[in-house]
Amino acid sequence: MGMVGKTDGSAPVETHAVTPVATRAQRRPLLLVVSVLLVLLGAAGGALAWMSIGTAVDAVVARTPIQRGQVLSADDFVVVQVNPDPQLQMIPPGQIPSLVGQRASHDVAAGGLVPTSVAAQEVLPPAGETVIGLSLAPGFYPAMDLLVGDQVRVVMVEPIYACAAGAPAATDSAAVPASSGCLDGQLTVPGVVVSVSMDSASSQLFLAVQVKQAAAATAASAAALGKAAVVLDTRER
User: Global pTM?
Assistant: First the structure.
């Protein structure tokens, strides 16, 4: 307490000093509970992550899409770590060499787990069948992509050449045996696509087609003369 005098000559005024009072910290129990819960959740998440890493196993997945019927190579696969699951069919990385050179029994999407049933235990071509190679210019094959396993027909666009290729002594379709497939002035040979590739510069399509052995010479000879085209039959099964 003190006395303060006024400059105008009036009586001094008594003043009181104000002492600051310390404010009591307010507690926020809800914020404290939330903080504790966040800490616990973080710890639990870290523990789960550590446990999942510790129990992960190596598995084989497809590096690129695998098509049914294609020849498998080591470049088709990549090894990743996944959590073990009894419901999953997984191939251990050590079995990759045993898959190389075999044919895929079904499609596998890129990044998909490679199952134990991916490889087909079959030898191509089987008895009574022959694989022929076809080099086709644009216009002699469908505009849509052909896939391994497609049912196709090799169609001879000039029957005289085709029939002559199938039966050298014949000059018309009537003189060619019925087994060659020369009917109504047009020869067709059914087959199955076993490999597909294309020259992007020229759009030349290269096909390997499995056909009956009896018709292989006719189809291959006509194709070599540039007198053959390929048509795609239904993909319905």
Answer: 0.51
